[in-house]
Amino acid sequence: MGSELETENQIHLLSAGGQHDDERLMDGFFTPDQEDSGARHSRLNLVALGNSSDGSLRMPAGTASGIGGARTSRRNGRNRLPRMLLEGKKLLITGVLTPQSIAFEVARIAQQEGAEIALTNFGKARALAQRTARRLPHPVDVLEMNANDPSQIKAVAHELEKRWGHLDGFLHAIAYAPPDSLGGAFMETPWDSVAVAIQTSAYSLKGLAEGMLPLMKEAGGSIVSLDFDASVAWPIYDWMGVSKAGLEAVSRYLARYLGEHDIRVNCVAAGPIRTMAGKSIPGFNDLAQAWSKRAPLGWNTGNAEPVGRAACYLLSDWSRGVTGEILHVDGGYHAMGANLHS
Q: Measuring CA to CA, which of 64, 191, 239, 311 is 20 to 30 A from 162?
C-alpha cells in the first residue's frame, strides 16, 4: 500500500520523529567492432535495447544521441551512449531499511546498471539501514537525513557536492502515517496526526527537491517517488491515501516548476509488496489476495524487482521525455474494472 508498504512504515517504532525512509529481448546489439552500416540498419530495425552479457541493460551502439546522448557529452565531453542504463549517474536513494524494501531493489539495480549511489536514513533506523547496505553489490554508507528537517537535507546536499559536484537524481521513498490515521478510523483522526502524515509523505518531496536543486539545475536530472494509486479510496488506507494523493499532486507541480531546469519528476505506483511495513498493516493479506484476482499479469507481493526496474528506467536518460507521470507497476490491476476470476 503505497510507499509506506515499501518504505517500512514501522520506522516510528525504531526512531522518534515519525518518518519512514521507505529479457534479454534479442541478442542483436552492436559492439564497437560490429558497426558496419548495413548490419547496423537492418538489426536496429528489429530491436531497440537488450541486455549485455553481465545482465545489465545496454544501449545499441551507433544509435543517435537523442536519448540522453546530448547530456552525456555535455557533462563529460564524450559523444557516446552509455553501455549500462545508469552508467556514470550519481543518485541519492532514500528509504532503504531492509533487503525487502523497494528502495533496496532500486539501489541494487541502480548499482548493477552503473550508477554510484548514496543512501539516507535517520535515528535508530539508520543502523538497520547500514547493515542492509552491506548486502548491496557495492556496499555504501548511509547518510543521516530526516526529510522533515531542512538542516539535515542541507547537510546531505553539502556532502554530495563534496563527493560528486552534482546530482543526477534521487528516489523519494519516504512515508509515514501515525497509527490513528490508518485502519478505518478516518472520521476520528485528529488534525495533528493528519498533518504528520501529509508533511512526511507528501510535503517532504518538495523539501528534498528544493534542497537538491542546486546540485541538479545545471545539467538536469530525474526525481522519482514511490506511490500507491491515490485515484480511489482504499479500505483501511485512510489518511495515507490522502497523503499519497498529495504526493502525486506535489510531483505534478514540481514537474511544472522544475522543467525549466530539465528536471523530470515522476511517480511509480506500485502494487502491494510484502515488506516489514506491509505485513504490519491491518488488511494487507486481504489486499494481496484481491490483487491476484484482478491483475492480468499476476502479482508477486514478495518480488519488488519489477518496481525497482521501473524506477531505474525513470531515473535514466531513456525517460527524458517523461515528466509529471504516474507509472503503474501493479500487474495491470489499476486498469481492470472487475476481477478476472470469481
A: 311
